Amino acid sequence: SGNFKEGSKKRLQMIDEIRNCMVNDCENFHVKYQPVINIAAGKAVGVEALVRFENDKYGEVLPEDFIPVLEHDFAFEEMGIWLMENAMRDGLKLVAKNPDFLMGLNIAASQFGDSFFVESLKEASDNTGFPMKNICLELSKNCRLLDQELLKEKVAALREMGVKILLDDFGSGFASLEFLKHLPVDLVKFDMQFVENIVESETDRQDLKQLSALAALHGPRVVIKGIETEEMLNIISDSQIDRGQGFFFERPTDIETIVEKYV
Ligand code: C2E
Ligand code: MG
To answer: Using the 8-state DSSP alphabet, how is residue 133 labeled?
Structure first.
């Protein structure tokens, strides 16, 4: 129990340091990018921006180690705006070469529910010159818990501006399918649990097929994340799935690598 106490104390200390960095112009933060591949064409159609914290003491810290704790802190709001601007600035190099390239931004429920969200996004787009139509908002699964009317209105308003809307972690958590009926979106990205075991499990292969057929029936294109091997990709290529992402193609990397290899 002494170890447990010691461990949680260290963790709190790390969270505190990360939070301080957030309010200090996001020092020690950077953005990594992972390509999203059109499977049939074998070509990148966009990237997903993934935030990283890194310093000498803790090395590279993944978002799941601090976002759940800090999501409701005003410091996180600051980080969100910092991230948008940085990703859009980096993204200019991508849309200059491919005018249809999409920049995927992960959005937590606390961010999307904020009344200034649309305003902040527009401001970042104005400040950087990155077009709204090249932004793809990846709404986290908790966004589905926001007020339904507010959600509908915001999504509609953003799509009106050309922004693409993607439902992340589709199939997990609250009312996924029911949801699609009432909320028109551009893309859905399946939760990783639906692909993890497709090589070993025939049931999982069937589930993936059914779920993608159902999603397609409602309109949006389907993105699969977590493609780690060629075997997984081959199975996925057989179903009606449009886009893929995963370590098999590329791990989250720096913008220069994306520019060199994917646009
Ligand atoms: P996500 O949106 O589901 O992002 C995909 C996660 O899967 C990333 O983890 C990525 O590194 C990982 N991944 C990619 N390919 C593979 C693969 O083939 N196998 C496996 N096992 N994993 C793969 P990451 O970067 O640690 O991000 C975790 C989550 O943190 C994201 O999940 C997203 O929900 C959240 N997140 C990341 N950046 C931001 C951000 O800037 N803002 C907000 N609000 N959330 C963020
Ligand atoms: Mg995502």
So the answer is: G
